[in-house]
Amino acid sequence: MNRLKIDNLNLTYKNGYKALNGISLDIKNGMFGLLGPNGAGKSSLMKTIVGLQKPTSGSIEFNDLDIVEKTDYIKKNLGFLPQDFGVYPHVNAYDLLNHIAILKGITNKAERHIQIQFLLEKVNLWNFRDREVHAFSGGMKRRFGVAQALLGNPQIIIVDEPTAGLDPEERNRFNTLLSNISSEVIVILSTHLVEDVKNLCSEMTIINKGQILKSGKPKELIQELNGKVWSKSIDNDELAFYQTNLNVISQQLIERQPQITVYSLEHPEGFAPVEPLLEHVYFSVLSQNNSL
Ligand SMILES: Nc1ncnc2c1ncn2[C@@H]1O[C@H](COP(=O)(O)OP(=O)(O)OP(=O)(O)O)[C@@H](O)[C@H]1O
């Protein structure tokens, strides 16, 4: 079992901006969702974990080793799946993986071949190994991305905005692949999409303005909201009133009629109770934080 332990991590950039503020997390094998809006500090945290920048204070341990000092250890055990990675034209899937494997330090040719074949089969691309990666569909590129991230048998995999731009079928296939992998390694999924966390993660944290606002199992966080989410159809001109007087966590149009959902400990008059969803957890936590 792998363990990533982050304790009271702070990061202040040179311009004085405090991007991480007292982050503590304890992450084990499985899919961990790091959920937050743009600018929340997700990339700052990821870059600090993988040793691309040093924290101002605090500690990060991976399998009991201090990786703030020993960045080589985490780099050796890391797979990274960026949202979009540049691929050279005219290079086929096999050759590109071979090239990346060499960069990752897998010097033995036979060993590289075994790994590449194993991984291309795992992501269902072995039959496409002679095709140029840049001509792959979005879903195939993503699956190729998983294969390259898994080269060298990493114990921790960081995935950035995993399903952006995928159609539902590709998204499902990709999600199944990720969740299979995560039984043996830590997969950290950094995203602003509640949907990805809901589908994939057994543990999650909500981050904003460099701080952790809430952590736990999605199911339990949803349960905490039982009896606290309400909705109502309203007229357009009433919206401002409700926004001032209640904690509005979402609004949508249903058959052209605005409907608002609010977080409230008491039953607000005229509202109907709503079964809580992870979206409600996310937006209620963010709105409480924004009103501070
Ligand atoms: N090198 C830097 N110097 C100063 N400020 C920075 C630097 N890098 C990031 N920031 C600021 O830190 C904050 C957090 O940025 P970060 O990229 O970590 O957020 P994020 O959650 O990953 O957002 P996104 O999803 O948009 O990438 C932002 O306000 C950003 O402008």
TrEMBL record:
One of its GO terms (molecular function) is ATP hydrolysis activity. Gene3D superfamilies: P-loop containing nucleotide triphosphate hydrolases. The keyword Nucleotide-binding applies. Residues 4-234 form the ABC transporter domain. InterPro entries: AAA+_ATPase (IPR003593), ABC_transporter-like_ATP-bd (IPR003439), ABC_transporter-like_CS (IPR017871), P-loop_NTPase (IPR027417). It comes from the Bacteria. It holds the Pfam family ABC_tran. CDD domains: ABC_drug_resistance_like. Keywords: ATP-binding, Nucleotide-binding, Transport. PANTHER family: ABC TRANSPORTER, ATP-BINDING PROTEIN. Belongs to the ABC transporter superfamily. This is ABC transporter ATP-binding protein.
